[in-house]
Amino acid sequence: MSKVTIISVKADEEGQRLDRWFHRRYPALGHGGLEKMLRKGQIRVDGAKAKAAHRLEAGSEIRVPPMPEGKTPKPRVHAISKAEIDQLKSLVIYKDAEIIALNKPSGLAVQGGSGTTKHLDAMLDGLKFGNDERPRLVHRLDKDTSGVILLARTAKAATALTAAFRGHDVTKIYWALVIGVPQPKQGRINQPLLKQGGKGGERVTVNEMGQSAITDFQVVEQAGRRAAWVALKPLTGRTHQLRVHMAAIGHPIAGDGKYGGAEAFLGGDVPGRLHLHARTLEITRPGGRLTLTAPLKDHMQETWALFGFEDSSAKNLEWP
């Protein structure tokens, strides 16, 4: 066992979650052990107790108690093949010296969880493109949500992008197929959301005790009264926000059995998978705003063709 130490957060570590900071520096420390130290106040940030999700700031001082010694457990990760590297590179829709944007397919998890060894985070060495540094995740998409996801190519870029997401300097538009046709066809959903349960049982509900959550929506096209193509603009970034909000107004996203139940499945030729796609992401870059667009793929592309929806229909949407 080592002694208590005080470590200052480096500039390139700003924006990291406290738990991830510990896991990178002390991989032999399990998550349960970390949570116990946090509850007891053995770990402190600038002299105060902190939670695992606390975002670090450059210059902050972290009190590190004696850490367990011993052999670092070998992480269970998916070994990436050349074919998978080639496939991963085929997902790139934008790349410069600081960022990479991918069109993530539905079904690919962003990070690992219980029993998940194949995920995007485990394969990022395949996207170095000659750099020494490994790309870093700066935000997330649900496993079954497709579309634009950003990666930082350097620690400095990761800090800047994390700050942009935290400071709401990022505009995101999602496309979804929902059950029925919302009335009115344009509006704002302002309903607080509360996250309950742990891994595997995580569920989000509309609850006055929850965090503020706001989503703007517009109907782009409709398939009679059966379903509608809806553009969604989240003004906050809560877990499962779009899925819960649409279900809350009586129009769950197609394929979302978790929040829409049996009514979320149209049947017939419509695939029974989640129809939610991160269509565009706009962020400030040197020289102006950069807009990244991810084309529809797989089952959503099939559904759009089935209903005769045209991408051009969403070109002139105006948001409040």
Describe this structure in words.
This protein is of the alpha+beta class and 320 residues long. The protein folds into 3 domains: 60 residues, RNA-binding S4 domain (Structural Genomics Hypothetical 15.5 Kd Protein In mrcA-pckA Intergenic Region, Chain A); 85 residues, Pseudouridine synthase; 145 residues, Pseudouridine synthase (2-Layer Sandwich). Strands 5, 6, 7, 8, 9, 10, 13, 14, 15 and 16 form a 10-stranded mixed sheet that branches.
Taking all Cα atoms into account, the compactness measure Rg is 21 Å
Which band does the percent of strand residues land in? Answer: 25-35%
CATH class of the largest domain: Alpha Beta
Low-confidence parts: 71-76
Q: What's the shape? A: globular
Instruction: Report helical residue fraction.
Output: 10-25%
- The number of helical elements comes to 7
CATH topology of the largest domain: Pseudouridine synthase
